[in-house]
Amino acid sequence: MLNTLIVGASGYAGAELTAYLNRHPHMNITALAVSAQSADAGKLLSELHPQLKGIVDLPLQPLVNVAEAAKGIDVVFLATAHEVSHDIAPEFLAAGCVVFDLSGAFRVQGSDFYRQYYGFEHQHADWLAKAVYGLAEWQSEKIKEAQLIAVPGCYPTAAQLALKPLIDKQLLNLDQWPVINAVSGVSGAGRKASVTTSFCEVSLQPYGLFNHRHQPEISAHLGIPVIFTPHLGSFPRGILETITCRLKTGVTAQDVAAAYHEAYDDKPLVRLYDKGVPALKSVVGLPFCDIGFAVQGEHLIAVAAEDNLLKGAAAQAVQCLNIRFGFPETQSLI
Amino acid sequence: MLNTLIVGASGYAGAELTAYLNRHPHMNITALAVSAQSADAGKLLSELHPQLKGIVDLPLQPLVNVAEAAKGIDVVFLATAHEVSHDIAPEFLAAGCVVFDLSGAFRVQGSDFYRQYYGFEHQHADWLAKAVYGLAEWQSEKIKEAQLIAVPGCYPTAAQLALKPLIDKQLLNLDQWPVINAVSGVSGAGRKASVTTSFCEVSLQPYGLFNHRHQPEISAHLGIPVIFTPHLGSFPRGILETITCRLKTGVTAQDVAAAYHEAYDDKPLVRLYDKGVPALKSVVGLPFCDIGFAVQGEHLIAVAAEDNLLKGAAAQAVQCLNIRFGFPETQSLI
Amino acid sequence: MLNTLIVGASGYAGAELTAYLNRHPHMNITALAVSAQSADAGKLLSELHPQLKGIVDLPLQPLVNVAEAAKGIDVVFLATAHEVSHDIAPEFLAAGCVVFDLSGAFRVQGSDFYRQYYGFEHQHADWLAKAVYGLAEWQSEKIKEAQLIAVPGCYPTAAQLALKPLIDKQLLNLDQWPVINAVSGVSGAGRKASVTTSFCEVSLQPYGLFNHRHQPEISAHLGIPVIFTPHLGSFPRGILETITCRLKTGVTAQDVAAAYHEAYDDKPLVRLYDKGVPALKSVVGLPFCDIGFAVQGEHLIAVAAEDNLLKGAAAQAVQCLNIRFGFPETQSLI
Amino acid sequence: MLNTLIVGASGYAGAELTAYLNRHPHMNITALAVSAQSADAGKLLSELHPQLKGIVDLPLQPLVNVAEAAKGIDVVFLATAHEVSHDIAPEFLAAGCVVFDLSGAFRVQGSDFYRQYYGFEHQHADWLAKAVYGLAEWQSEKIKEAQLIAVPGCYPTAAQLALKPLIDKQLLNLDQWPVINAVSGVSGAGRKASVTTSFCEVSLQPYGLFNHRHQPEISAHLGIPVIFTPHLGSFPRGILETITCRLKTGVTAQDVAAAYHEAYDDKPLVRLYDKGVPALKSVVGLPFCDIGFAVQGEHLIAVAAEDNLLKGAAAQAVQCLNIRFGFPETQSLI
């Protein structure tokens, strides 16, 4: 049994993570924590997330002293704001914990990136360099050795899973940048109150045109430029990405299918569609990323769907945990 | 042409009111105002409510000095918080304006009511005594003479329209209190950010059991006790009320129908169903209150539906305006 | 391992049931069946319910010959239309199978009931007499001995769980019939195409006033008259019931709480709220029925919420299975 | 006053059209019609669309004999299936009526198009050749002279309004095909029952990849190839299109803005965003097409939003009517 601490359990991804770990046979949830200033400190997790009543009734403890909190803890999950993860991850790491960080604080190499897209100066170049990007289907060897796993963002997970096999097999004509149109459920914006995410204001809308921080995360890890256009959708959870690419002359639908099958046939959390493309409902509440595609001439449309809180956050974190510690990859996920 | 000022135009009811008055042939919108502290002061109404872009692009002016703002104004609409209406209505009234107040500040006689349900001491007993309750179908004679019209709350409008004909005709056995189960869209909670009304948190739920302030408003104006159970529904607008009553022995469905028809056959904004009961969609975006019912033995279920922002707020305010100034009752509403 | 056949697996409750049984350690799904005429015969379950892709990819086999289909089967689940269950359950029973019927065909004693509310003549008075009503929290002793378990309807489950403790403790003044206002998600209407349940038509609406067949099911099993008013809600799943009752003089909130705690403190699938009342989201996707209440004077409002497809159908069926065969009551449900 | 007949008034677009024409000061609705076989024949329009109760309570008459129906009619609106419009429009035209056809039957020149995308042989090459494509902002001179106006499809209206100014000003590098990602509300699929559009089945999903019939309609009228990917969205009405294009080297955001302003500054039903892009809610229930855009380097993202039933159907039909007969362009629309 591994003792685990979940910081930021009060949020949507944190609650999902807690539910997964609560039923994981090798994990012992030692404590749930929130930031010391949080108005939620002292409440039960199930007061905020009543679906967990009777399942996980642990209190949310204020995280006052990281060194203290790290005592006896084997594994830490950080479902915290980027700046918070940036500040506290190194302390947990120094205490010997294995850290799974669901924030963006350690996902991309280079301090410029953090200055430009996250608005802060990254202070932990050493840990940033050591962090392993937890795109589970592609990084399992590195994850097994890592002490700090930076779990990918919700949008980048689906985008990379759809594009990486095509890039690796050199099927794309990159003169034309892939166009990633993505629609996310509102839970992607987190649990705090805001007019933007209030019930009566939400309506399908693009945002962050040409400047969403997930665009450089996708580009950095794929090694190609992309056009990434996120949209807020009028549903609570799930992400659907419609990705339009130019194929190299002569590349066929069969080539595309072969690339996907080679990449994912032995990966339990990616489901390939031999015909048709996924709908959002296929993945909501489930840990999968579903991928389908269509080809016409030199044009390819790939469609990837996932639950933003699961394969886009909590489930992928647990998948990385399972890989890191040698548990079955889908343990407690399916 | 009457010059009009709309205070609180930034909210959902305020925006609907502005749209109605903007197309009213006898009204000239002199200004839109918000409280001086509002973060929305200085913005265009259409920035907050983009559906009004190109239709009403007036700015939201901070209301700094009521006496100043009242100059040259014939009619004021207050779509403001109860406390704000309570404070500023008397100043507009003193300046000679006719005031239509959409808040609860002048709806119920008796300072106890405000102490208990609104948490403030009412300072304007004189105006409270003079205020006419703007339940338009039942108060038109008084409205014609009034300087201060207290437009009824959203829940009370539907409840009273459904119950008042039955009470007046003495059809109910009041040993058994009418049970009013009401479900309201989220816009009823207003436009400010709150976790409770955030997209991912909203879900059908009763609230305010036995202590919602609309229960005594309903009871006071109907003159009978009722059990009123409001629910938050997962839709932006509309109210549906399912009202279960005991009929006096011998009262028939025909008696009930006759009471409704007598009350409303000449009322253009109440639509009676000869068979079946209304669905929410029948009234969303429209100024009507729809009423249907079913009887079995001594039991009656009446169903009333309205748009909480329209017949439950803005449309009824305009209906009162039309009555007050002798315009056709549905002017600019249909 | 028990061999099991699921008939009607193509529907919403059938698919949930299949997912539960698929992960049940003591159950072996031998086959999934649909009626021989069904257009879905021959398809994979996961074509109709893509969320099950990679989890349950079994085909839907046409049920041509019941005797043949029953061979080697220990347990049969019928998630079929009432008439179909009525016709085929006796054949499976004759073959020695234990049958869990999710339809209404064996829920209420008396052929009059079926003539009046279901529109058919019940042909199997013997099996009807032997059928055990599977309201799991209240019938566990009988369930252990039963060969035919009639799993209760979705509305009746929540209504009875909320009312039965109060009736048993004689807390209610039954001169006033309990008023049950219930709102159900659209999945309650099943999966077949209809204008009524099409996306653009659904809107909060009462239906079946005074004549829904679940009213007599509730009354028959509680032994009291009730007023039951179902509503269609604009959400896919879940039921919320707001139940208004008259208490006997002198009965207190403490008495009500005590009755609930005595009934359910050792029942893992009923969650009691010590303060507040449940929201729909607390139970969607979960096997629980959540119950809360408020009292004022002699008036009680009890609120019960459940997922109509789970505690209102599939989860309760599995709960009955677990009780029947001595497995832990929540096996594969939590 | 022009006498008008509306065929297909029972559908979603037909009902909206009827509401517009009902309040049009120059139009007299002589009759509403549905096909002779329709199960809705004989019902009141307001039985199907209860929001119209008390507003338009006309009956839906079966269309038995076109020549008979055309007598005394000046203007006919066809909100009918493509094949029906194809069959009956010529008869109304022969009788001298001006016909506004909301179907696809006369939108694109060339019989091949109908064979390939609509599955029928077009029998009326003469009328097809004379038909004017009613993209109102661009065809007003031709509309004024036309007897048959083919009102554009919902997706093509928004796509063309967003792209046409850019193409006309030669701002686009067409080596890269514009990528049109469009999400439509479910009402776009019409009012008939289908599992696909049932409440529990709808979920964000692409469909018709590379083969939706609106792609060639868009391409034919713009004169360029495009990639058009429609999606079904989980909302009743509205269309949002996110269009990604390559600009020619040197083209700036100012050039794009200038092209839009030149095209639409005097067009009352296109609203341009000087900053930001539209959300769906900005246009639902309104006759506008809203357009905004962002540029980065040589990449342009244009976003267009409209109500699929209004600017994408009924409102554009009325706009064409107003242009055709010299009424103010927005008469009865705003």
Automatic annotation (TrEMBL), chains A, B, C, D:
<dbReference type="GO" id="GO:0070401">
    <property type="term" value="F:NADP+ binding"/>
</dbReference>
<dbReference type="InterPro" id="IPR000534">
    <property type="entry name" value="Semialdehyde_DH_NAD-bd"/>
</dbReference>
<keyword id="KW-0521">NADP</keyword>
<dbReference type="InterPro" id="IPR023013">
    <property type="entry name" value="AGPR_AS"/>
</dbReference>
<dbReference type="GO" id="GO:0006526">
    <property type="term" value="P:L-arginine biosynthetic process"/>
</dbReference>
<keyword id="KW-0055">Arginine biosynthesis</keyword>
<comment type="pathway">
    <text>Amino-acid biosynthesis; L-arginine biosynthesis; N(2)-acetyl-L-ornithine from L-glutamate: step 3/4.</text>
</comment>
<dbReference type="InterPro" id="IPR050085">
    <property type="entry name" value="AGPR"/>
</dbReference>
<dbReference type="GO" id="GO:0003942">
    <property type="term" value="F:N-acetyl-gamma-glutamyl-phosphate reductase activity"/>
</dbReference>
<dbReference type="InterPro" id="IPR036291">
    <property type="entry name" value="NAD(P)-bd_dom_sf"/>
</dbReference>
<keyword id="KW-0028">Amino-acid biosynthesis</keyword>
<dbReference type="InterPro" id="IPR058924">
    <property type="entry name" value="AGPR_dimerisation_dom"/>
</dbReference>
<dbReference type="GO" id="GO:0005737">
    <property type="term" value="C:cytoplasm"/>
</dbReference>
<feature type="active site">
    <location>
        <position position="154"/>
    </location>
</feature>
<comment type="similarity">
    <text>Belongs to the NAGSA dehydrogenase family. Type 1 subfamily.</text>
</comment>
<dbReference type="InterPro" id="IPR000706">
    <property type="entry name" value="AGPR_type-1"/>
</dbReference>
<keyword id="KW-0963">Cytoplasm</keyword>
<feature type="domain" description="Semialdehyde dehydrogenase NAD-binding">
    <location>
        <begin position="3"/>
        <end position="146"/>
    </location>
</feature>
<comment type="function">
    <text>Catalyzes the NADPH-dependent reduction of N-acetyl-5-glutamyl phosphate to yield N-acetyl-L-glutamate 5-semialdehyde.</text>
</comment>
<dbReference type="GO" id="GO:0051287">
    <property type="term" value="F:NAD binding"/>
</dbReference>
<keyword id="KW-0560">Oxidoreductase</keyword>
<dbReference type="Pfam" id="PF01118">
    <property type="entry name" value="Semialdhyde_dh"/>
</dbReference>
<dbReference type="Pfam" id="PF22698">
    <property type="entry name" value="Semialdhyde_dhC_1"/>
</dbReference>
<protein>
    <recommendedName>
        <fullName>N-acetyl-gamma-glutamyl-phosphate reductase</fullName>
        <ecNumber>1.2.1.38</ecNumber>
    </recommendedName>
</protein>
